[in-house]
Design brief:
Elements: H1 6-12, H2 16-32, H3 36-63, H4 84-90, H5 94-97, E1 101-105, H6 112-125, E2 130-134, H7 135-148, H8 151-160, E3 163-169, H9 176-189, E4 194-199, H10 203-210, H11 213-224, E5 227-231, H12 237-247
Parallel strand pairs: 1-4, 1-5, 2-3, 3-4
Helix pairs in contact: 2-3, 7-8, 7-9, 9-11, 10-11
Length: 258
């Protein structure tokens, strides 16, 4: 069947989804006595599936999301304070359609970044445009774009993507320009696009991250309005893993006496 007369035509039209399944579908059509239109419909489904998967792979690569950190791989048992029902509701991505925000707060290592990434993955699967970065890197990229002529392109992407994930808010101090940029991003996206933000800072410490009372008040008012807040308590995954590894390490032999 690899000499099927349709093959060169399908390749010329860049219908590789059909090329890959033509032999199998032709055999199925012969065995099942499919009508020509039914055979064509099955082949078209194969091509559409290939294009959907290609588009999804491209969007994952462009978004900065980790395709391995999904809700399926999140350890809810290790984060008993996380309401699984609430997370599953957020995973429907209705909050993106409503231009609402999600604030994930808690100490270091409890799974905030994993959950943010997992929700972003769900948005990508629903064909939303997503950009995920640590806040520090995002502001550094925006600053660098001012000097290399890419500022308008970078800024447009930041404020027009359907979902922007800002990881580790408050982890590092912000420059005055970074404070202004963060405020501008939040203000521009307010009630137009959604933000997921993770932070290990308590809410009463958030204003101090800005070092500017006026901008802090204005930014946080917009950020927390129409927001779903998830506070995660517990112990760091990494600390628990270190203890497990330590317990599994054979005891060292005593030092020889002198």
């Amino acid at each position: 069947m690899m000499t099927h007369p349709l093959l060169p035509k399908l390749r010329q039209l860049d219908l590789s989804g059909m090329v890959l399944t033509l032999d199998m579908r032709a055999a199925q059509a012969s065995e099942g006595k499919l009508a020509p239109t039914e055979f064509l419909a099955v082949l078209l489904d194969d091509e559409l599936e290939r294009r959907t998967q290609q588009r999804l792979s491209r969007r994952f690569a462009e978004s900065g999301c980790d395709g391995q950190k999904t809700l399926a791989t999140f350890d809810f048992a290790a984060a008993p304070g996380v309401n699984r029902t609430v997370i599953q509701e957020l995973a429907t991505c209705g909050f993106v359609a409503r231009h609402e925000n999600i604030l994930l707060c808690g100490p270091t290592g409890v799974g905030k970044s994993h959950l943010a990434n997992a929700l972003a993955c769900e948005a990508l699967k629903r064909d939303y445009r997503v950009l995920s970065r640590s806040l520090h890197r995002l502001l550094m990229d925006l600053h660098a774009a001012r000097g290399n002529g890419a500022y308008n392109r970078v800024w447009t992407r930041l404020v027009t993507c359907d979902l922007l994930v800002l990881d580790d808010f408050g982890l590092q101090s912000l420059t005055p320009q970074g404070v202004q940029d963060l405020y501008d991003i939040i203000a521009e996206r307010y009630e137009r696009r959604s933000v997921i933000l993770t932070s290990n800072r308590a809410f009463d410490e958030w204003a101090g991250v800005f070092n500017n009372d006026l901008l802090a008040s204005a930014a946080l008012d917009r950020l927390t309005h129409h927001a779903h807040t998830v506070v995660i308590q517990g112990e760091s995954y990494r600390q628990r893993s270190r203890r497990k590894e330590a317990l599994g390490t054979p005891n060292a032999l005593p030092a020889p006496s002198s």
